[in-house]
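Q: Could you fold this chain for me?
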Amino acid sequence: MFVWNIGFYNDILEDGIPLSQAVNDAYEAGYTEPDPREDLAGNDVARKALILSRALKRKINFEDIELEPLFFCQSSPKNPKDFIRSLQDYDKEYALKVGEAFKDGCVLRYVARLYDDKVRVGIESLPKNSSLGSLRGTDNQLTIRTNRYDLNPLIVAGPGAGPAVTAAGVLNDIVAIAMAEKMLK
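A: Sure. Below is the predicted structure, expressed as C-alpha coordinates.
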Protein backbone atom coordinates (compact mmCIF):
# COMPACT_ATOMS: atom_id res chain seq x y z
CA MET A 1 0.00 0.00 0.00
CA PHE A 2 1.17 3.52 -0.80
CA VAL A 3 0.10 6.49 1.28
CA TRP A 4 0.68 10.01 0.07
CA ASN A 5 -0.08 13.22 1.93
CA ILE A 6 -0.84 16.61 0.45
CA GLY A 7 -1.07 19.17 3.20
CA PHE A 8 -0.32 22.78 2.40
CA TYR A 9 -3.52 24.06 4.06
CA ASN A 10 -3.88 21.62 6.91
CA ASP A 11 -1.07 22.65 9.23
CA ILE A 12 -1.90 26.33 8.81
CA LEU A 13 -5.47 25.63 9.94
CA GLU A 14 -4.04 23.97 13.07
CA ASP A 15 -2.43 27.30 13.93
CA GLY A 16 -5.86 28.97 13.97
CA ILE A 17 -5.68 30.58 10.53
CA PRO A 18 -9.11 30.60 8.83
CA LEU A 19 -9.57 28.37 5.76
CA SER A 20 -10.16 31.35 3.45
CA GLN A 21 -6.93 33.03 4.58
CA ALA A 22 -4.93 29.78 4.35
CA VAL A 23 -6.10 29.20 0.78
CA ASN A 24 -5.47 32.85 -0.13
CA ASP A 25 -1.94 32.76 1.32
CA ALA A 26 -1.17 29.49 -0.51
CA TYR A 27 -2.60 30.91 -3.74
CA GLU A 28 -0.59 34.14 -3.45
CA ALA A 29 2.60 32.15 -2.74
CA GLY A 30 2.05 30.02 -5.87
CA TYR A 31 1.50 26.78 -3.92
CA THR A 32 -1.95 26.03 -5.34
CA GLU A 33 -3.02 25.19 -8.85
CA PRO A 34 -3.83 28.35 -10.86
CA ASP A 35 -7.44 27.59 -9.95
CA PRO A 36 -7.39 26.54 -6.26
CA ARG A 37 -10.72 24.74 -6.72
CA GLU A 38 -8.67 21.97 -8.36
CA ASP A 39 -6.87 21.47 -5.05
CA LEU A 40 -9.94 21.73 -2.85
CA ALA A 41 -11.95 19.40 -5.08
CA GLY A 42 -9.16 16.84 -4.69
CA ASN A 43 -8.65 16.54 -8.44
CA ASP A 44 -4.93 17.34 -8.36
CA VAL A 45 -4.23 14.72 -5.68
CA ALA A 46 -6.45 12.19 -7.44
CA ARG A 47 -4.59 12.73 -10.74
CA LYS A 48 -1.24 12.20 -9.01
CA ALA A 49 -2.56 9.06 -7.31
CA LEU A 50 -3.76 7.84 -10.70
CA ILE A 51 -0.31 8.38 -12.22
CA LEU A 52 1.33 6.50 -9.34
CA SER A 53 -1.23 3.68 -9.63
CA ARG A 54 -0.58 3.30 -13.34
CA ALA A 55 3.18 3.31 -12.72
CA LEU A 56 2.49 0.34 -10.42
CA LYS A 57 0.72 -1.39 -13.35
CA ARG A 58 -2.76 -0.99 -11.85
CA LYS A 59 -5.53 -0.79 -14.42
CA ILE A 60 -7.44 2.16 -12.99
CA ASN A 61 -9.21 5.21 -14.39
CA PHE A 62 -9.91 8.55 -12.75
CA GLU A 63 -13.57 7.60 -12.28
CA ASP A 64 -12.49 4.53 -10.26
CA ILE A 65 -10.93 6.67 -7.53
CA GLU A 66 -12.90 6.99 -4.30
CA LEU A 67 -12.62 10.80 -4.00
CA GLU A 68 -13.69 12.86 -1.00
CA PRO A 69 -13.23 16.53 -1.89
CA LEU A 70 -12.23 19.05 0.75
CA PHE A 71 -14.81 21.38 -0.73
CA PHE A 72 -17.59 20.94 -3.28
CA CYS A 73 -16.82 23.52 -5.94
CA GLN A 74 -19.57 22.97 -8.52
CA SER A 75 -21.51 26.17 -7.80
CA SER A 76 -18.60 28.32 -6.67
CA PRO A 77 -17.46 31.53 -8.36
CA LYS A 78 -15.27 30.90 -11.45
CA ASN A 79 -12.75 33.65 -10.70
CA PRO A 80 -10.10 32.28 -8.26
CA LYS A 81 -10.02 35.43 -6.10
CA ASP A 82 -13.84 35.51 -5.86
CA PHE A 83 -13.82 31.81 -5.01
CA ILE A 84 -11.28 32.32 -2.24
CA ARG A 85 -13.36 35.17 -0.78
CA SER A 86 -16.43 32.89 -0.84
CA LEU A 87 -14.57 30.43 1.42
CA GLN A 88 -15.13 32.81 4.34
CA ASP A 89 -18.59 31.23 4.59
CA TYR A 90 -16.86 27.95 5.56
CA ASP A 91 -14.20 29.26 7.95
CA LYS A 92 -16.15 28.36 11.11
CA GLU A 93 -17.11 24.90 9.81
CA TYR A 94 -13.48 24.01 9.06
CA ALA A 95 -12.29 25.48 12.36
CA LEU A 96 -14.73 23.12 14.12
CA LYS A 97 -13.37 20.11 12.18
CA VAL A 98 -9.81 21.06 13.07
CA GLY A 99 -10.82 21.56 16.72
CA GLU A 100 -12.56 18.16 16.91
CA ALA A 101 -9.48 16.39 15.59
CA PHE A 102 -7.24 18.38 17.94
CA LYS A 103 -9.30 17.30 20.99
CA ASP A 104 -8.46 13.70 20.10
CA GLY A 105 -4.73 14.45 19.74
CA CYS A 106 -5.09 14.37 15.96
CA VAL A 107 -4.67 16.62 12.96
CA LEU A 108 -6.37 16.65 9.57
CA ARG A 109 -4.42 15.63 6.49
CA TYR A 110 -5.49 15.14 2.88
CA VAL A 111 -4.30 11.66 1.99
CA ALA A 112 -4.20 9.42 -1.07
CA ARG A 113 -4.11 5.69 -0.29
CA LEU A 114 -3.30 3.17 -3.00
CA TYR A 115 -4.35 -0.38 -2.28
CA ASP A 116 -4.08 -3.44 -4.51
CA ASP A 117 -7.63 -3.03 -5.77
CA LYS A 118 -8.59 0.62 -5.17
CA VAL A 119 -7.46 4.19 -4.64
CA ARG A 120 -8.96 6.45 -1.98
CA VAL A 121 -8.34 10.19 -1.71
CA GLY A 122 -9.75 12.23 1.17
CA ILE A 123 -9.28 13.98 4.46
CA GLU A 124 -8.24 11.89 7.45
CA SER A 125 -7.82 12.55 11.14
CA LEU A 126 -4.35 11.28 12.08
CA PRO A 127 -2.31 11.31 15.30
CA LYS A 128 -0.41 14.58 15.58
CA ASN A 129 2.85 12.76 16.33
CA SER A 130 2.57 10.33 13.37
CA SER A 131 4.81 10.79 10.35
CA LEU A 132 1.91 12.19 8.29
CA GLY A 133 0.57 14.22 11.19
CA SER A 134 3.89 15.95 11.78
CA LEU A 135 4.25 17.27 8.21
CA ARG A 136 4.28 21.06 7.88
CA GLY A 137 3.98 23.55 5.05
CA THR A 138 4.21 22.20 1.53
CA ASP A 139 5.86 18.94 2.57
CA ASN A 140 4.54 15.72 1.11
CA GLN A 141 5.19 12.19 2.16
CA LEU A 142 5.11 8.88 0.37
CA THR A 143 4.78 5.88 2.68
CA ILE A 144 5.39 2.44 1.20
CA ARG A 145 4.04 -0.58 3.04
CA THR A 146 4.82 -4.04 1.74
CA ASN A 147 5.19 -7.45 3.36
CA ARG A 148 8.77 -6.52 4.21
CA TYR A 149 8.05 -2.87 5.10
CA ASP A 150 4.86 -3.27 7.11
CA LEU A 151 5.71 -2.52 10.73
CA ASN A 152 8.42 -0.08 9.73
CA PRO A 153 7.33 1.38 6.36
CA LEU A 154 9.66 3.01 3.89
CA ILE A 155 9.03 6.78 4.00
CA VAL A 156 10.12 9.47 1.55
CA ALA A 157 9.28 13.06 2.48
CA GLY A 158 10.07 16.49 1.11
CA PRO A 159 8.65 19.64 -0.43
CA GLY A 160 5.75 19.15 -2.80
CA ALA A 161 4.89 22.62 -4.07
CA GLY A 162 6.28 25.98 -4.98
CA PRO A 163 8.31 27.55 -7.75
CA ALA A 164 11.64 25.86 -6.90
CA VAL A 165 10.12 22.38 -6.76
CA THR A 166 8.18 22.93 -10.00
CA ALA A 167 11.27 24.31 -11.75
CA ALA A 168 13.32 21.31 -10.63
CA GLY A 169 10.66 18.96 -11.99
CA VAL A 170 10.56 20.75 -15.34
CA LEU A 171 14.37 20.70 -15.55
CA ASN A 172 14.37 16.97 -14.73
CA ASP A 173 11.83 16.36 -17.53
CA ILE A 174 13.94 18.34 -20.02
CA VAL A 175 17.07 16.35 -19.11
CA ALA A 176 15.15 13.06 -19.43
CA ILE A 177 13.87 14.08 -22.87
CA ALA A 178 17.36 15.14 -23.97
CA MET A 179 18.82 11.84 -22.76
CA ALA A 180 16.11 9.87 -24.56
CA GLU A 181 16.76 11.82 -27.76
CA LYS A 182 20.49 11.14 -27.48
CA MET A 183 19.85 7.42 -26.98
CA LEU A 184 17.51 7.30 -29.99
CA LYS A 185 20.14 8.61 -32.42
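A (continued): The longest strand covers residues 106-114.
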